[in-house]
Write a structure and sequence with these properties.
This protein is α/β, with parallel strands linked by helices. It is about 35% helix and about 25% strand. A hairpin with a 4-residue loop joins strand 1 and strand 2.
Length: about 325
């Protein structure tokens, strides 16, 4: 269930997303892929929640399902917008830049052309594009400029919540910092709330106020940014941070994130999703799903889904 509250731009409780598959599973039930399994989170107004994890973890599915479920899509079109990952494929190549930014306003029922033009002019300036570029087509822009058009398009209906789906992963490193700083500036200027999807912990640390680590449809860890990066508790979170490139490790071959088999989410799950790859796993981890609960001894809001939470907490604080 998704909704809003007085202090939250988005509040989600017990969200699950399953896709039907052919055949039946080991229990005889019809097969389905449980991409998101009982996830809950809330985003305070004016802040950024980052959902981080490897490709296929379910983070984009969770974000889209939470904010843009089928029943609420039409009602939410003005309140929620999306900045897509690929600025090359997310813009209509047949439309000029100004018309790309205009489109959401038309779908939202804003038919006053003069008001639309005023908003377009304001947003081109806000995202760092020149007025004369309004008449150009997408192929006439660089990747960073195209993403600026995508950002202006997302802002055109004055949304309160923007889903940023890997918004810089397709850009050159030098351009990534420019776009991230632009997003932070626009957040302050327009009082925006971001749901930020990324596999890059460096980007998440720069952008987000809170972090949720997702693995195979489940949240493994949720924490305020400073608490998370100071003392990550879950073995999967630690593996993600260990995999972040460093200058010292740049010349060495990079091993896999962690060894072990990835669970088949089309079959019923009986334990921790990460148990087959966790170096600390014990029999209980394979047979009992750990609940997301407050982490012992953690600073601020910090939750953990791990049967070894107390041991990990003691090690982190020692």
């Amino acid at each position: 269930m998704a909704g809003q509250g007085p202090d939250h731009a988005l509040a989600v409780e017990n969200l699950s997303v399953a896709y039907p598959l052919k055949g039946r599973d080991k229990s005889g039930a019809r097969r389905r892929l449980l991409a998101v399994d009982d996830v809950s989170f809330a985003i305070r107004r004016g802040t950024t929640l980052g959902i981080v994890g490897e490709s296929g973890s379910g983070k984009t599915t969770a974000a889209m399902a939470a904010a843009l479920d089928a029943a609420a899509l039409r009602r939410a079109r003005q309140r929620v917008q999306i900045i897509f990952q690929d600025p090359y494929s997310s813009l209509n190549p047949r439309l000029r830049a100004a018309e790309i930014v205009r489109e959401p306003m038309l779908h939202a029922g804003r038919t006053n052309r003069a008001e639309q033009d005023r908003v377009i002019d304001e947003l081109f300036e806000a995202v760092g594009l020149r007025p004369e570029q309004k008449s150009l087509f997408p192929h006439q822009f660089s990747g960073g400029q195209r993403q600026r058009i995508g950002i202006a398009r997302a802002l055109s209906t004055r949304p309160s919540l923007i889903i940023c789906d890997e918004p810089v992963s397709a850009l050159d490193v030098a351009v990534q910092a420019q776009i991230l700083n632009l997003l932070k500036s626009l957040q302050r200027q327009f009082d925006l709330t971001y749901l930020f999807i990324s596999h890059d912990l460096g980007v998440v640390q720069h952008m987000c106020d809170e972090v949720a680590v997702m693995y195979m449809g489940k949240f493994m860890e949720q924490a305020e940014r400073d608490s998370f990066f100071a003392a990550p508790r879950h073995p999967y979170s630690r593996a993600l941070l260990d995999a972040v490139p460093t200058i010292e490790a740049a010349a060495r071959p990079r091993p896999p994130l962690v060894d072990g088999a990835i669970p088949d989410l089309s079959e019923p799950q009986t334990g921790c999703r990460f148990a087959s790859r966790c170096p600390h796993a014990m029999p209980r981890c394979e047979n009992e799903v750990p609940l997301l609960a407050d982490a012992t001894g953690a600073a601020g809001h910090h939750r953990l889904a791990c049967h070894l939470a107390d041991e990990i907490g003691s090690a982190a604080s020692g």
